[in-house]
Amino acid sequence: NNNDYYVENNNHDTMISDSTGSDSVRRNFDNQDEAFYHKEDIQQQQHEQNTIKETKKKKEDNAIADGGCAGWLVVLGGVLVQFITIGIGVMQAYYEQHVFSNDGSNIRFQLGFVSSCLFASLNGLGAVFQILRSILGTRIVLVIGTLFLSTGLITAGFSTQIWHLYITQGICFGTGACFMYMTLTIIVPQYFCRKRNLAFGIIAAGTGIGGAVIPFIMTTINKTLGSGWTYRILGFVSIIFNVIICLVVKGPRYQQQTKIERCTKKLNDIFDFQVLKNPNFVLWCLAATVQLAVYASPFFIIPTYATFYGLSDSHGSSLVTVGNIMNFFGRIICGLLADKFGPINMNIFFSSISALSCFLIWTFADNYGMMMTFMVIFGFVGGIYFTLMPTITVTILGVEKLPTGISIVLLCNVISILFTNMVSAIDSNSTSPQPFMTYKMFTGVGFSFVVIIMIWIKFRINKKIDVKV
């Protein structure tokens, strides 16, 4: 019995011991599982934190500083390109009166074709620029643009035939100006964020400076040194500034690739054709084409309009000069306001004032005072397209798709010259008792059309009225 009791107790103790041991082992396994999963959670959290840090660092690496020495040098280069491009048009009158005055009655038409070649090259070669930039890189394209621009100006000084100007001033200079302008347009957003519209406003103001100042400078040089040296001096000045730009400007970091990667790109990699499937962008291309066409009409016709009402040529010239000066201030102030309220909102606001100035002032302007009032107001608000075009494109497409977007918008700009020629032909055949009414209605209705399209785009992006867009 004692033995049985011993065995029974021993078995009981063994069972207790086994039970206790298995519980201990089970707890150990449970603890190990908890530690394993806890370690996995910690690793996952660390991975997420590292990912956030890497994303933040990447954003910081690609961060856009508001200005800096390099950024403002880019802006200065853009002003120079605009300044010189506007100044080139001054030479047409000089060549017509002094150089090719004995070459026939259609000399004005032949010289006008130089400006057409320049306009077509400046706006129509955006696709060529995009291909070269994607294959060769930003800096090499800048160098090519500098060579074309400066060579075109310098060789234009040696032109003895009109067709020489087609090649030098029209195609060569126009190609260089396109490459420089396109590069600066897609580079500026890299340097500016909060002041992006202001930067583009200052660049666009270069045309106002050129239209108001450079005619007097070039006229003085033409009288003292001749037309040849006028071109050459402009060419040498452009070399100095453009070389500085080539040394300072760099392409966006996300586009810096190896030579093999650049050379093996396909057309779909260079052009993002998906932008054409964006309804907002298609609407913006339509609005941009109309806006550029209607902006040019008053500046083109106002000198003739003034002389029709008995004013002198100097009065007509002063109206254009005042319009260009107001353009200078209007584009910069528009840039400041667009940084605060949004470029699309500002385009709606300024285009509305442009339309009202045509309907309410220009329609009844039959004396110098009313004409001057119109040019002060229209000059201030009418030229904001050149300030807002790049930033509206960025707002709709984003920075990475900006090169393709700008190329397409500039290509659409070529169409705008057809509108101006069409209006000119309609007005010349018009039997309206009020002269130039075709131009007045075309400009006013055109800006009204732009306002409607921009409001449509605004509410497609965000339906709230008070949102910065």
Mean pLDDT: 78
Number of strands: 0
Poorly predicted ranges: 5-12, 57-63
- 3D shape: globular
Helical residue percent band: over 70%
H/I helix tally: 18
Overall radius of gyration: 33 Å
Kindly give the count of domains. Answer: 2
In the CATH scheme, the class of the largest domain would be: Mainly Alpha
CATH architecture of the largest domain: Up-down Bundle
| Content-based structural category | mainly alpha
Distance between the ends: 98 Å
Along the chain, the helix and strand elements come as: HHHHHHHHHHHHHHHHHH
What quaternary form is this? single chain
For the biggest sheet, the summary is:
none
Instruction: Specify the CATH homologous superfamily of the largest domain.
Output: MFS general substrate transporter like domains
CATH fold call of the largest domain: Growth Hormone, Chain: A
Strand share of the residues? under 5%
What's a quick, concise take on this entry?
With 469 residues, the chain is mainly alpha-helical.
Description:
By secondary structure, this protein is an all-alpha fold. The protein folds into two domains: 68-267, Growth Hormone, Chain: A; 272-469, MFS general substrate transporter like domains (Growth Hormone, Chain: A, Up-down Bundle). The protein has 18 helices and no strands. It has helices at 2-61, 68-88, 90-99, 107-124, 126-136, 138-156, 162-191, 196-224, 227-248, 259-263, 267-270, 279-308, 313-341, 343-360, 368-381, 385-397, 402-428, 437-461. Helix 2 (68-88) crosses helix 8 (196-224) and helix 12 (279-308) packs antiparallel against helix 13.
